[in-house]
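P.,

For your records, the input lines for the assembly:
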Amino acid sequence: MRNCNWYLWLNGKKIFNIRELRENFDTAVLSGYFFGGSLMKWLSDIGELNIVRRLSEIDLNADIGSQLEFAFGVSPDKKLSAPIKILPQNPPHPYNDVNGSAKVNASSFYGGAGSFYSIESSFAAAVFSAGTESSFSGSFGTFSIETINLASTSGYGTGSYNALAAGQALSAASSGAFASSSGLLYSFVKFSFGSYKGFAAGSFNGFTLGSSGSFMLSGGILRLLSSGLAGSGGSFAGTDIFFENGSFVYKAGGVTITAEEYRRTLINLTSCPLNAYGYGINLI
Amino acid sequence: MMNGIHVNSTAPFFARQPHSEYTIERFSLYCTVISALEWRKKNGAVYMVTDRIAGDYYRKNGIDKVWDSILELIPEDIEGIDPEMFWAAGKLIALRDIPQNAALVDEDLIVWKTLSLSETSVTCAHREYISPDIYPDPKLFGVQGFPILDRLDTQALPCNTAFLYIPDDSFRLFYTNQSIAFMKAASANKCGDRLCRMVFAEQRLLGMLCALTGTEIDTLMDMNKLFIAQDDYTHLWGAKQAMRDNDDQRAAFIERCRKRIKSDFPEYSDITDAIDECTKN
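Structure tokens returned:
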């Protein structure tokens, strides 16, 4: 029995040879190696060519688990997972076609459980015309939406949001309380992927001050909207892009930003507005 | 010294533009070239892992010299995976099939310093929070034929894989195999999702599999400080879309890149003409 010089991860163990594989037969993981393409290589490396041949004859439309058991000569009581069958078609599911129109008929729109996601095109022309009893909550808030009209919200305040056009920043001052659980005001309307994740949860969170968010992005310039900041260590009054009024140290979630870091960051944003969407672009 | 790889699969391009001649956006190619040259300057050899079409494109246009060599390992059909849903599938295939271990560096990521990475931990660019709009409960995908999902810890934070180094070859194959298996299973039910399934397969699954196996994860950057000024990394990330939307920003970025190549890599200064010749603005 030959050992392989690389292992499979089955049943929580590193598997180097065919005996170990049979003793730790793990259909769920093994099927991943089978469809992922490396199971045959592992078997070839240890000289188990008969099993390779059997695997090459597997019917992809039948139960994969039982065929794997047969190919490896494993009795059913050794298997660790339920049978796997590749179904030809998923049952209809509301999340399977996110390009379709999204309608919120029930006037209830919760995201806390992670039940809502989408892509930019899904809402390209959508108008959220929620009823007055609508709820709009959750820890997310990154939307690629051309137009949003949320008449009334609950859960995070009762602000009114009207006709947020593409590229237009959400104004905390004019839009009332639009807050996320992370304290970040999500106003990056045009992001389609990638960096808005960073904004949603990344370091912008580090210098978002207070629970209602105070920054907006307008024309690539980071501006401070709110005149009152709830962050610890200072306050700031002004609308300029530089942090001028005294030292400020923000601490949250283990992140500390000094006034100097903050100032340097804003200078980078000013010198290269693309830094608002990625990072270190000013270094080029 | 550490080897690096860039990865480019043309399958997503031809899925979007089936009858077009292959090309690359100018700003993107400029960034790729600087990324390759800077990696060679600071960290070691860098290879382009790609398919035949892109390999021909780079060679025909004289771009290939920025890499140590081009490895045409990716099949043009990306093994039947839906290229629209899984536009980064080529990265997983390349990472599975590279003959020698290497750090995966996205073409829009530039590493400006010499790295010293763990040989026991996985190193990724940074962790990500689980925003349900980007990382919904994977069971909502309704994918059949991916039974390992039941064992995975949904609290494990995703790993941003703009940079990825997996020193353990066996774990690299474990991760890439499970990811590819998921993409194949999900491709059986084509849908309009261009984000959530992809980042699950590439980024969240990695964090979950590390948790499952007790594999430690290091990061290049603290996810809470990505946008605080630093001097070590450039990642275009969402700026790619910003440049598509804004001609002035795109032009300014390209000009920055031209100057950077001419100042830091004068021996490659003629490549700016080659890029301008073969790309669309």
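Two observations worth noting. Chain B has a mean pLDDT of 96. DSSP finds nine helices and nine strands in chain B.

Regards
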